[in-house]
């Protein structure tokens, strides 16, 4: 089943919000790993003992294993001093002690690891990575090396490398890391899989985390999300229902449940689940979220009237929710309820005056109500609010059309040209052509109108293109455009009139009179004058 774009976007954003940057951390006598995620907070540090001797066992690391030389008593004391300096924040001292120890016993992994952490803390990622590579060569069966190299790769933005290193760490850690450390490595892996949008692999990783901590409801929710995005929405349903049984007030789970049923082609089931969830949630904001999702589902089913009522109910449940008013405005505008849309957008702008999107939408509604000066002012205001590219193009379009209607043709052309550059569209090109024509720049008008026809050959665009071609004395081209138009819309009096002018300009009076007579019979007064 193909998922709707809105469902995919919502789920992807929710998953992406779970992960944050990975960091390395070291306790006094252990190798540590840490991964901070919003969903679990900052975990406690695991205790993973640094191997003091090596067995020469071949591990996952590509480099061949080396024989490990145990630390002497004096070297162990020096190692303890280095760790103490590191913990105290005396990084220069720690680096000196670790480097001294590396010089004395290069083939023991512990000094390399301590030096790597110290260099990382000093923002020397290259030096830290080198020392971790030495650690991996000496302790190829340990997970801490690839994990912390993954942290460095993440910080450098080398996401593919980080993913491979976290996968390597996850493969090594099973028999040597405790539950806390395992979860931290898996969370780092999950974060990279989310960035890569590999939801099948992410489902596997989150399932492993759920085994480690089966009571973590957030992990259950994320697992259901990942399964849904991997195309296994039906398989996610048992987990979502189990989560709702344990926490019936969770609005995010109720929304996910509805999204799954919509994706399965069962919008009516989705609506029933949303209605069932409403009494369980605890706040007006949560009920508004359910109602807004209900409005979206109803819109997809074609019941736009009920969708408006659902959005309106959302504004009553959460009267400070600007997005709810904006959604109501959008739905009312789609039903040509322009006064209702205007009221809704005014409320949205009042609640969130810094939203460029809401201000631009308000400007668009004003334009449909012929409130041109106000539309122009609102569009100008939207341009000052750091709009995204789509909102910027929309605001410029409204500003340009409003200016054209007020006879401000130079301003109209500037705004519409800028809009067309950012987001080419047939309507924008049409209005740009009309503005150029009004400014008597007929060549520019013909160019813009030809672009409009290319993008969407509407009768209006073709009629105006024919007129612009006539104005630039391109009579044969004008005739071709207009002849095609009258053949498709034979009752288009204006098209017949312009066709007659194009034929007369080419000294084909007989053809011209035939076209003009047709236009006159259809009620075109100018054609009647032209026949005299």
TrEMBL record:
Q: Which UniProt keywords apply?
A: Repeat, Signal, TPR repeat
**Residues of the signal peptide:** 1-21
Which superkingdom does the taxonomy of this entry point to? Bacteria
What's a Pfam family this protein contains?
TPR_6
Q: Where are the TPR repeats?
A: 322-355
Q: What's the name of the protein?
A: Tetratricopeptide TPR_2
Q: What is the lineage of its organism?
A: Bacteria, Thermotogati, Deinococcota, Deinococci, Deinococcales
């Amino acid at each position: 089943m193909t998922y709707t774009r809105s469902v995919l976007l919502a789920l992807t954003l929710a998953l992406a919000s779970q992960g944050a940057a990975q960091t390395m951390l070291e306790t006094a006598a252990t190798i540590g790993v840490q991964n901070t995620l919003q969903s679990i907070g900052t975990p406690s540090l695991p205790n993973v003992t640094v191997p003091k001797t090596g067995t020469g066992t071949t591990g996952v690391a590509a480099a061949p294993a080396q024989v490990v030389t145990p630390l002497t008593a004096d070297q162990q004391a020096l190692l303890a001093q280095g760790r103490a300096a590191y913990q105290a924040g005396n990084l220069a001292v720690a680096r000196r002690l670790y480097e001294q120890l590396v010089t004395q016993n290069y083939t023991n992994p512990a000094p390399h690891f301590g030096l790597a952490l110290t260099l990382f803390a000093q923002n020397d990622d290259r030096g830290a990575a080198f020392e971790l590579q030495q650690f991996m060569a000496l302790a190829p069966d340990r997970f801490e090396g690839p994990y912390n190299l993954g942290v460095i790769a993440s910080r450098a933005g080398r996401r593919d490398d980080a993913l491979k290193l976290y996968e390597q760490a996850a493969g090594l850690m099973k028999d040597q890391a405790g539950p806390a450390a395992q979860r931290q490595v898996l969370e780092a892996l999950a974060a990279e899989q989310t960035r890569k949008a590999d939801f099948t692999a992410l489902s596997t990783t989150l399932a492993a985390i759920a085994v480690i901590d089966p009571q973590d409801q957030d992990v259950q929710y994320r697992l259901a999300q990942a399964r849904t995005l991997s195309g296994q929405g039906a398989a996610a349903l048992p987990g979502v229902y189990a989560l709702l049984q344990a926490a019936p007030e969770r609005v995010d789970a109720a929304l996910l449940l509805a999204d799954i049923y919509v994706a399965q082609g069962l919008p009516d089931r989705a609506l029933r689940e949303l209605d069932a969830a409403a009494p369980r949630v605890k706040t007006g904001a949560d009920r508004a979220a359910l109602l807004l999702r209900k409005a979206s589902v109803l819109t997809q089913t074609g019941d736009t009237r009920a969708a408006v009522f659902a959005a309106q109910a959302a504004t009553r449940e959460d009267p400070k929710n600007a997005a709810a008013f904006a959604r109501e405005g959008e739905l009312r505008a789609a039903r040509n309820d322009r006064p209702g849309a205007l009221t809704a957008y005014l409320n949205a702008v009042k609640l969130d005056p810094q939203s460029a999107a809401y201000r631009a939408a308000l400007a668009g509604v004003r334009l449909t109500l012929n409130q041109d000066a106000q539309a122009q002012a609102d569009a100008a205001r939207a341009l000052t609010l750091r709009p995204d590219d789509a909102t910027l193009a929309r605001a410029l379009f409204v500003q340009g059309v409003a200016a054209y209607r007020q006879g401000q043709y130079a301003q109209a052309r500037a705004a519409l040209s800028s809009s067309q550059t950012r987001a080419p569209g047939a309507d924008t090109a049409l209005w740009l052509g009309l503005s150029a024509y009004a400014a008597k720049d007929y060549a520019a008008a013909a160019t813009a109108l030809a672009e409009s026809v290319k993008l969407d050959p509407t009768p209006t665009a073709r009629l105006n293109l024919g007129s612009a071609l006539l104005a630039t004395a391109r009579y044969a081209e004008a005739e071709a455009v207009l002849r095609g138009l009258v053949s498709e819309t034979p009752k288009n009096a204006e098209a017949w009139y312009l066709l007659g002018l194009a034929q007369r300009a080419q000294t084909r009076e007989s053809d011209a009179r035939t076209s003009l007579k047709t236009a006159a019979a259809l009620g075109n007064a100018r054609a009647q004058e032209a026949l005299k």
